[in-house]
Structure formats: C-alpha cells, structure tokens
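Dear support,

I submitted the protein below through the web form. The confirmation email said the job was done, but the results page showed an empty box. After a refresh the structure appeared. I'm attaching both so you can tell me whether what I see now is the final result or a partial one.
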Amino acid sequence: MKKMLILCALFIFACSQNVQRTFNFNYTVNIESSNGKKIELWIPIPQSNSVQTIKIFAIESDGLNYTVEEEKDHGNQYLYINHSDGSFDERTVSISFMTNRKEHQNMKYDAISSEDYLDAYSMVSIGATFSEIIKNNRLSKNNIRGIYDYVLSGMHYGKPKNVGDEYYNDPWLNSKEKYGNKGVSRDTVVALYLQAKLEGGDYTFGNGNSLYACDIGVGNCTDYHSYFMSLTRTLGIPTRFHMGFSIPLENDGLVGGYHCWADYYVEGEGWYPVDISEADKHPQKSDYFFGTVCENRVEMMVGRDFVLEGYGEETVNLFIYPLLEIDDEPSTSFTKHFSYKNI
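What the results page shows now:
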C-alpha cells in the first residue's frame, strides 16, 4: 500500500510538470489621426523559450511602415512603427500569435548568463536601504524562501487612485491598518499616487520602484517583484523580472492588463520562478507560487531599463503597453485592448 501511494504521488508530480495551455493572443492598438505628423509606436513582441512556444505570428500595420527590432541587453524583440508621413485617420496596429505555455518549476534556459542579472536598475536599487533590511531581518541567500515570505508579509496588494475606489476599501485596504516600513495610512497611499500623477513622478505603485515598495508596502505585481529583486540582488543572487499577461480561465475573452513575476538563479539547478503578488491575492497558494508558476500566462519581455530604437527617453523602465510618440513627443492618443481564445 505504501509503495502504491509513493507511485501515485510521483505520477501526480510528473503530471504537474506537463500541464500546458494553448491559446491565440491578440494585441491591438488603435491610433488616432496624427494630422500628418510623424507617428512612432513601440510594441513588445513575445519569443519562444523553454516554457513557452510562440507560433503563427502575424503583424498588421494598417499601412504604417515598421520594422522588428531587437533590444540588446536582454534579447527581447519589439515592433517599431516609424511612419514619417503620419495619418489623417485612425490606424489599427495589431500583433497576433499562438502560444503554448507550460506550468513550470526550476528551468535551465539556453544562452542566459546569470551574471547579467545582479546589478541595479533605475528603480530597483541594491545595497544601502536593502542591506539594512537584510541585516535587521536576518535575511540570507541560503534561505530564499525567507526573502519571499518577508516580501509577501510586508506588501499589500492595492492600487487606490482615489478615496473610496475599489482598492481603497476592504478586502484590499482598510482604515485601521498601517502599511510599509513607514507605517502609512491608505490615505497617504492615495495622496502619493495623486502627487506622482500631477508631477510626473514615480514614487507610487505600479512603477516597480523598490524603494517605494519597502517604504509604503502597497502596490501591484511590479512593486512586489522589484522589492524581491532588490533584496536578492543585494545578496548576490541573480534575479530576473518577467512581464506579460495573465490569461483568464474562460475559453475566450479580454485580458484586463499586464502581469509580472520573477525568477532567481541557483548554481547548477537553474532558474526558480516566484509570483509573490499572486500568492498574496491567493494565500492558499503561497507555497505553490514559491518555485512554480502556472500555465495561464504569456511572457512578453524580460528585464528592465530598455533602450529602444528611436525612442526619445534614455531608457524605458517597464515595457508592456504601447509607447507612442507624435512628432517626437510622447502621446496618449491611442487605445489598446488584448484578447485571447483557447485552442
């Protein structure tokens, strides 16, 4: 009987490593008329790797000139629309592809150097504040689960943009709790968001600013995993940042927005994935999301601080949504939507 139970457990484990999902994904951008002014647009393009296969790729540019470029630091690809004549009507740009995505645990990826994932990014600091956090909380490179649990317990998922919105209230935030290492209220979280929006700053949720994450402790997936990266990289643990989309469980529909996660490297074993924000939203799966990520996602980009051909800013902190410039000036004159359908 004992032997049978062991065999059953091994069978279940083996099956869990082969869970896959195949779906079509469409990324669509509608650009308003530029009144003949130059249009430049950047859209991330997913690539195949050990855990996802991208096939039947199609680009529709609606008559706008484009090239497919490679981002040099991390090897990502992206679509670059560069149409000097502009347009006098709305144009629709889309990429569509089939994805086969696997649930996975630790993986050894080809042509990935762990040494490339130890330094700071513009919004992911190392040392200083994070060295103090490591010392004061006795975090160790020999106990990465302890780092995961520290971020999980210290962060709270929420994106409150005004007093009274969904994330301002239970079950996300409440009036009695204090958040982050600074012990702030939910009203402070909202005030910081409004200030950043007014001033064009980045000290708020959704920018993957690890200093904000540890200070304020309220944010989304970018903040959780940036915080985790600052701690692990300070300890000398190579860690990568992944950005893509979570795919709902239904057969087809729209995807509301992006998702991100991370993985860290263990010599001789490969890269172990973590999804701390999902673990926070689903506490019953906190063990699962330490070392496993599900098949219900597609990865679009790896890394941070991207240098994109023709883009006006020096680097791009996060690159998942379209970037648009009209006559070399940033523009929001577009709408975007993402859809999927199981195969």
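Response: this is the final, complete result; the empty box was a page-load delay. Residues 1-16 have pLDDT under 50 and may be disordered.
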